[in-house]
Amino acid sequence: MEVDDHQFEETEEIYQRSLEDVHEILKHAKVDEKTLTPLTQAIYYPDEELPDLRLVELDAHILQQIHEGSNMYFKGGLDEKVVLCTDEKTYEVKTAEISNCLLVIPDLKYAQQTSKSPLKSPKNQKGNSSFNNSLNDSTEEENMNRSLESKKVQKIFNEYFELKEIKPRYKKIGDLLQMTRYSGPENEFCIDHKLLFTYDELFDTIQCSRKEFNEGLRFYRAIELDGFFRIMDYEYEYRIVNHMVQLINENSWSLDHIDRNTTYQSLVGIAPREIVEGLFEIYTKHSE
Fold this sequence. Notes:
Shape: elongated
Order of helices and strands: HHEHEEEHEEHHHEEHHH
Pfam family, one: Dcc1
GO biological process, one term: DNA replication
Strand content: 15-25%
Number of helices: 10
Number of domains: 2
Protein name: Sister chromatid cohesion protein DCC1
Number of strands: 8
Keywords: DNA replication
InterPro entries: Dcc1 (IPR019128)
């Protein structure tokens, strides 16, 4: 059986609301048109597949980050709950149900936008004055010629993502770096280099913001060595720190005036410069 395209288009138009339909519906509903604004909006569900959108509840911090164009990240492994991270905070992402469906309709107009004359503000009185009365007063003054606009639903939401600020989950930093503890160049042949992490690789894995991630690196005393972050074996760290303390005593340096360059030169062959620099960052602070 052949179907005429023109006939199909005409059949499809039957399902589009007309002004006559609007007048008839208002009549059956016993609604006086004079109490309504002159614009009617007919809402339609789209025939095409709805876009893949998600509804997310935002607090003031995240909203500010969006306005400023800051980066945000969703993080989570197969056995982890998803978190949203800004540059400063971490949020757990939970799904919350909506009791009534929410429809996203672009360019949908509200009452004041559908009226030709400005609507009066509702009065805070004990009488019958209300927004509806102000709407009636406004529309009665209009010489109404009802118009009809079609609006398409862009998305229907039955749930949304709820964000709850949580403490940073940077314990995983210690768990991952524990596998490649640094105990000196002579023991590097024992290390599986496939388990080494750069800053970016480690940051992408840890569920926390960049600020919290940097705090986690300091907490675990992680040091960048040859482009990868490592934590030191306790005995090795104690041995190098002990060399540094002996050097301070030998040179009678004040604790406020430790010569970094001399320390670097004195420990050449004992520890990599990056290790010594990292220990300075962990155990000392700059003095003027």
